[in-house]
TrEMBL record:
NCBIfam families: trehalose_TreY
Organism of provenance: Paractinoplanes toevensis
Molecular function as annotated in GO: (1,4)-alpha-D-glucan 1-alpha-D-glucosylmutase activity
GO biological process: alpha-glucan catabolic process; trehalose biosynthetic process
Every Glycosyl hydrolase family 13 catalytic domain range: 1-643
Lineage, broadest ranks: Bacteria, Bacillati, Actinomycetota, Actinomycetes, Micromonosporales
Protein name: Malto-oligosyltrehalose synthase
Length: 740
């Protein structure tokens, strides 16, 4: 945290109001993210401990900034048992441990199953007893009192846990986990004692003024999110609380006592309005030509979810089925219902309509199961039924694994829209749609977070902005990508299309980064290789394809030239997205480093170190009066970000309303504009199409006759009508403030 404290002066200059951190409780040693908390009683000593948090809070307050912290109520890290005192005690004492109710464990099978062994025969022969512990290579486990005599195998067989082949985890694990990650065990925060023990330190930060806000990670894993948020709000009545709830398009957030979501819904809308929706058919045709398939997004998702329900989440499915032993076909029917569930989960009784929709779709796909489906849905509608409770937790995990971690890597027609919280089948968002949903956000969740990039996005905002240009040049993209797949072929054509889009979207990207992305994407797609069963032959061909991008001079030059052709309109889209996100209703989140161009791909690529020294230097030049050009430096984005953030911080009263502002003239549809109540935002849409029309021409905005100051160029304007060509002469975006 000392490193963060050193950035506070820069963040204050940038215009931010709060520093927003990853989890800071004690995590697994060496954790790169902090979401694997092992001890809820203290700030992570690797971050400097409690003293460092106090110092950071003091530095922030001195600069006029606050602190928002990420918390993880759903799960705890169990990869290294000795560092997690509650898990260690459960392993040692079993159900007699005072912490046995901390974790969501099914003790009906007897021992707690730990899938940590290698998959070769006789792995238990590698166990040894040392210093009163059972050890397997570098892994350490406790020995129950009075059970330490005999061979290591004999000692193992007396424990409250059973060490098994790691591949058995998906089929047999008997504790709830985070998705399919066995190193993250589910917590029972619905138990008031567990809530208190895991939140006491966090709530101290709030009560003592060390932190002002809380970002709640993965609420969909909780048994009863609504009850959890009620308890959290009661314990922290003054805190700003946002939830990492991923809403599908059109889905409403339950009426929880929170400020709103972390902004993936806003991300989908902001990015979508910069996509030309008229060219969708081109990409359908291209995808069919490349893959030979005509699978719809809906069928792709169903196929992936159904497969994962019966493989990677088979243990959870079995636990559900054991709650209805009288129904022989329960596993099949439950898997089908979950695969057809249209959103992440319901929060009964809120969202019961989603269950009805799943029942209808499941019956259409599996008419022979209609009787069983009706039996099950009768119980799944009852919020007090254990089957309904666990089914809600199950559908969320299945959606995450089936859509985010699988289908996004298989259905690759236009990956600018393959993003968390978005429906890739919805190609773009019209200005009318954008204004409607944004006004609704102002009315219902005005203090929710808005985001464009996070550590969970599949590609950064600037990559998506550049890829959005492809929708304006579908013929050019079709021509080059069809040639590239012939020059550097891959047996999986859908994956190849994904990689070609990543290459031009993030260009110039190093060989090592693109190689790592390609392998991760292939394993996530799990069509030709996977994390569980890597196919070395396929992955070798995949690496050869990526190598050819760099080793074939003609191909390398062609990719570079094409990327260069879409980069300037991509910059326009990036600036447009940014100014819209920073000024629309909601609390904008600026992910680390994205105040300059950031061409990052999926985690861990988006966690690379940020060059703050360069950002400081460029911001100082801007503050000295430099108007940076829209070029490779990204300083124009820094200008837009800093000026918009500072204005929001200095004049919050100007950002309370929302009214669309329409442009008149032949190119009016290329302007996206709105008035927040004294501040008018203007952004350029579809810049390639605009240039084909020869520019803005007679396009104008109707204002109210007052004098206005454009924030980025410090230029004054007056009159009832304002020429868009004049307004956007320097930058493709503008921010007008009504002069007092």
């Amino acid at each position: 945290m000392s490193a963060a404290a050193e950035l506070v002066d820069y963040l204050a200059d940038l215009g931010v109001s709060h520093l927003y951190t990853a989890p800071i409780l004690t995590a697994t040693p060496g954790s790169e993210h902090g979401y694997d908390v092992v001890d809820h009683r203290a700030v992570n000593p690797e971050l400097g401990g409690g003293a460092a948090l106090t110092d950071l809070s003091n530095v922030l307050k001195a600069a006029g900034l606050g602190l928002v912290v990420d918390i993880v109520p759903n799960h705890a890290g169990v990869a290294v048992p000795p560092v997690n005192p509650t898990w260690w005690d459960v392993l040692k004492k079993g159900q007699k441990s005072e912490f046995s109710d901390f974790y969501d464990i099914d003790w009906s099978r007897g021992r707690l199953l730990l899938p940590v062994l290698g998959s070769t025969p006789d792995e238990l022969d590698n166990l040894r007893v040392e210093d009163g512990e059972l050890r397997y290579y570098d892994k350490r486990f406790p020995i129950a009192d009075g059970t330490g005599d005999g061979t290591p195998r004999e000692v193992h067989d007396r424990q409250h846990y059973e060490l098994v082949d790691w591949t058995r985890g998906d089929r047999e694990i008997n504790y709830r986990r985070f998705f399919t990650i066995t190193d993250l065990a589910g917590l029972r925060v619905e138990d008031p004692a567990v809530f208190d023990a895991t939140h006491a330190e966090i709530l101290r930060w709030i009560s003592e003024g060390l932190a002002d806000g809380i970002r709640v990670d993965h609420p969909d894993g909780l048994r009863d999110p609504g009850d959890y948020f009620a308890r959290l709000r009661e314990a922290a009545p003054g805190a700003w609380i946002v939830v990492e709830k991923i809403l599908e398009p059109g889905e409403e957030l339950p009426p929880w006592p929170v400020a709103g979501t972390t902004g993936y819904d806003a991300l989908a809308e902001v990015c979508g309005v910069f996509v030309d929706p008229s060219t969708e058919a081109f990409f359908d045709t291209l995808q069919h030509h490349l893959t030979g398939a005509e699978t719809s997004w809906q069928d792709q998702v169903h196929q992936a979810k159904l497969a994962i329900a019966t493989t990677h989440l088979a243990a959870e499915l079995d636990r559900l089925a054991r709650l209805v032993p009288e129904i022989e076909a329960a596993p099949k029917a439950l898997a089908e219902l979950a695969a057809c569930f249209p959103v992440y989960r319901s929060y009964l009784p809120f969202g019961s309509r989603h269950l009805a929709k799943a029942r209808s779709e499941a019956g259409r796909r599996r008419p022979q199961l209609i009787g069983v489906l009706d039996q099950l849905t009768a119980r799944l509608r009852n919020p007090a039924d254990e089957l309904a409770v666990r089914f809600q937790q199950y559908t969320g995990a299945l959606m995450a694994k089936g859509v985010e971690d699988t289908s996004f890597y298989r259905w690759t027609r236009f990956t600018a829209r393959n993003e968390v919280g978005n429906d890739p089948a919805k190609f773009g968002v019209s200005p009318d749609e954008f204004h409607d949903v944004t006004e609704e956000r102002r009315r219902t969740w005005p203090d929710a977070m808005t985001s464009l990039s996070t550590h969970d996005t599949k590609r950064s905002e600037d990559v998506r902005a550049r890829l959005a240009v492809l929708a304006e040049v579908p013929g050019d993209w079709t021509e080059v990508v069809r040639r590239w797949v012939r020059i550097a072929p891959l047996p999986d054509p859908a994956l190849a299309h994904l990689i070609w889009q990543a290459a031009v979207g993030a260009w110039p990207i190093s060989r090592e980064r693109l190689q790592a992305y390609a392998v991760k994407s292939a394993r996530e797609a799990a069509t030709a290789t996977s994390w569980h069963h890597p196919d070395e032959r396929f992955e070798s061909r995949l690496r050869e394809m990526v190598d050819q991008i760099y080793d074939d001079p003609a191909l390398n030059r062609e990719i570079a030239d094409f990327a260069a052709s879409i980069t300037p309109p991509g910059w326009s889209n990036s600036l447009g997205q940014k100014v819209v996100q920073l000024t629309m209703p909601g609390v904008p989140d600026v992910y680390q480093g994205t105040e300059l161009w950031d061409l990052s791909l999926v985690d861990p690529d988006n966690r690379r170190p940020v060059d703050f020294a360069t950002r400081r230097e460029l911001l100082a030049r801007i503050d000295d009066g430099w108007l940076p050009p829209v070029d490779e430096s990204g300083a124009a984005k820094l200008l837009v970000t800093s000026r918009a953030l500072r204005l929001r911080r200095q004049r919050p009263e100007l950002f309370t309303g929302y009214r669309p502002v329409w442009a008149d003239g032949r190119c009016g549809e290329h302007a996206l504009a709105f008035d927040r109540g004294g501040v008018v935002t203007v952004a350029t849409r579809l810049p390639v199409g605009l240039s084909r029309h020869g520019g803005w021409g007679d396009t104008s905005l109707s204002l109210d006759g007052h004098s206005w100051t454009e924030v980025f160029t410090n230029t004054s304007y007056g009159g009832n009508r304002l020429s868009v060509a004049e307004l956007l002469r320097t930058y493709p975006v503008a921010l007008l403030v009504k002069e007092q």
